[in-house]
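Supplementary Note 3. Input sequence used for the single-chain structure prediction.
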Amino acid sequence: MAAPAPNTQQEMRRRNLARVLHAVADGGPQSRAAVAARIGLTRTAVSTLVDELLGAGLLVELGPGRSGAVGRPGTALALSDSGPCGIGAEIGVDHLAVCAVDLRGEIRARTAMDAANRDSDPGPVLERLARLVREVADEARGLGLRPAGLAVAVPGLVARGTTTVVQAPNLGWTDLDPAPRLNTGVLGSGPLTGSGGDTAVYSVDNEANLGALAELWLGGHTPPSGDFVHVSAEIGIGAAIVVDGELLRGTRGFAGELGHVPVRPEGRPCACGGSGCLEQYAGEEAVLRAAGLDPRATAARYPGPGARIDLLATRAEDGDRAVLGALAEAGSALGIALTGTVNLLDPRTVVLGGALARLAPWLLPSLEQEMGRRLAGPPPVSASRLGAEGPLLGAAHSVVRAVLDDPLAHRA
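The predicted structure, written as discrete structure tokens, is reproduced below.
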């Protein structure tokens, strides 16, 4: 028996409501007339849609705004700062973090804690994360916000279309689905679903993917770029590829494993079973070893997110030759790996995020030299202004974007 035909009128209304919300999100406070001009609908149609969004608590009226047209200015519309919000969480090798972001993109609540999650039992880690999520969700409610859902960034491979972490080597997790442990009352005392009974947004994704999405939405590139490779690092190295404004995930969802691209085919053995992988030359532990620092002893002395990276940056600023040499070697290895990526994908730009953004001043010279030697007209390489915050912000904003894409599911 054939599936029933979709309700075309309902779907058109849903799409047009989303178009109005995105117009205000992208263009800032503006009048109904300005929104109508931006999305190509009549003022009458836009007014009807706006009234519905005002009633749903997704838009608010601020006062007179400029439409660009002659005549009396209309009332300026803005996204609500007391409607739905996105909850983002991050599981790092040495930390947990959670934040709440409102529809305007403002961080309204945030908490984090140092946590030794490497080779850990997932149960206690997820229990601690659940407590942090409840804390942030309840704080957001106290500010008049409604948590619309939860997205979690993890340093591992997540099967496409699922919440299953197939492999997270630095956590020691394999074939683990965090959802059952986080999906019961984790957002606090309030409901996790929209008022219409729709399922709330819930996702688990690779940290590099969410970092790249944050770069796409929040990176502030001029001109805006929807074609780039985003490379980030914590203990390992990951990459994400954005093409025409969309994340390229691959068949299984595993695209972007740059850390295991061989840069020295007969080089150091890697935990993945290969030899000479990029991670063995540009990963945090590799750089520490090359700088004459024992990774385990350094981690014990400098615990917490970004502590070892800050140590390397401080020593590089002080002219430490061993650290400068280690970073130059790491930059060269990155340049080799990225040469193959650029030849294959031809991106407009390459962005260094996470720990790599902090170390960019010392990585870029050898990286760009290597790419320049191997490529005709290499793309520009820049450091992300989001730095290590990218994955957490990408997680929270992915929930916000889902609300903008489907406002009917998140009305008050």
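The chain has a mean pLDDT of 88. The CA atoms of residues 226 and 244 lie 5 Å apart.
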